[in-house]
Amino acid sequence: MSHIVEIQTEVRDPVAVRSACDRLSLPRPTQGTFKLFSTTATGLGVQLPEWRYPVVCETQTSQVRFDNYGGRWGKQIHLDRFLQSYAVEKARLEARKKGHTITEQSLEDGSIKLTVNIGGAA
């Protein structure tokens, strides 16, 4: 039986953040307090390509803080790819915890189709 699921991503898992960075060949995220133009944010700092300031994932609250000045200091597409990768990696981690396997298919529109195989059967 097939089900279509839409996910609103809450960034809460540091392991999935690191896995998303690895998946996108980004530098490893670092824990700390980061400057975002006129403010600071504390959490896991992720440096996206061509972004002036890091994206800060506050995993305790699920908040993602950033300042890209309406796209002038960083393209939204890089953040979107990171959040998509986070969601895929989090789904993989949760499936593995339950003994399931997951297959992935990249679609032409840039979305990713995940299939969870219950019990690990492929």
Describe the structure.
The structure is a single chain. With 122 residues, this protein is of the alpha+beta class. It contains 2 helices and 6 strands, in the order αββββαββ. Helix 1 (14-23) packs across helix 2 (76-97). The mean pLDDT is 91.
Please report the number of helical segments.
2
Q: How confident is the prediction overall: mean pLDDT? A: 91
Task: List segments where confidence is low: pLDDT < 50 over at least 5 consecutive residues.
Answer: none
Terminal Cα span: 15 Å
Enumerate the strands of the largest sheet in spatial order, edge to edge or round the barrel.
Answer: 1-2-3-4
Overall number of domains? 1
Per DSSP E runs of 2 or more residues, the count of β-strands stands at 6
Name the helix and strand elements from N-terminus to C-terminus, one letter apiece.
HEEEEHEE
Instruction: Label the structural class.
Output: alpha+beta
What is the rounded Rg?
Answer: 16 Å
For the sheet with most strands, the description reads: 4 strands, antiparallel
Beta fraction of the residues? Answer: 25-35%
Q: Estimate the global geometry from the Cα principal axes.
A: globular
- The percent of residues in helical segments reads 25-40%
